[in-house]
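Before relying on records like the one below, remember that each one covers exactly one chain. Contacts with other chains, cofactors or solvent are not represented anywhere in the record.
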Amino acid sequence: MDVAGAFGVVTGASSGIGRAVALRLGGMGCRLVLVGRDKERLDEVAGRTGGEVRIADFADEESVAALASWLAALDPVPDILLNDAGIGAVADADADTDDEQVPGAELERLLAVNLRAPIALTRAVLPGMLRRGSGHLGYVSSIAALLGVPRESSYAAVKAALHAYGRSLHAEVASRGVGVSVVAPGIVDTEFFVRRGVPYVRRFPRPISPDRVAARIVRAIERERAEVIVPRWLRIPVALQAVAPTTYARLAGRHASSRSSPSPRRS
């Protein structure tokens, strides 16, 4: 699709990948709705892009429902909906569910923010896109959804569900004029790790910039790419895991055991 001048909605637009995408789209003359929780940061992005700010807490069902209703009532419906907002969590898989690090509420937040909210917003705009016969839906997944990451099993599972949702949606609506892209970034240099409570300490792979991911997202929308993995070299372990999962698991296990300093637990 021709992105220049399009009407786009970007969630998680206050920082990280969402902010980088919003700045790119704004530079292309797009009319934007910037969604997030941090009004001050959203206002800064709006000042640079001319976008409209909408405050929403994706962990709150009523807040998501209100935003979905507002989106459904828009005329015209957005050309682009990028679902970027997300949260992370780190904990041992066998941790006690009463442990402060993995309470039941934490899993509910992961499901609400990373999966339920994107689906609710998709359902709000998809009917209008299908009636018009055009539009693009984007979902920021994670390499964890494709490969799995130690101590991030709940996060990886929820992102895998989002990834599968995007793939299934593409199979359903692509022939009806609506593009769908699922983007799986590797390690990105954002505040994500600070917010999840555990910093990224591995020497490899090194984090990439949010703008690098944003460039691939915009290109995926323009070229209607169904799935994008960033950086590209991560396609190699994804392919190996797909064709030889046991071999991949052994190699990944050796890499994990050879790390000099494992990821610390949250304090």
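DSSP finds ten helices and seven strands in the chain.
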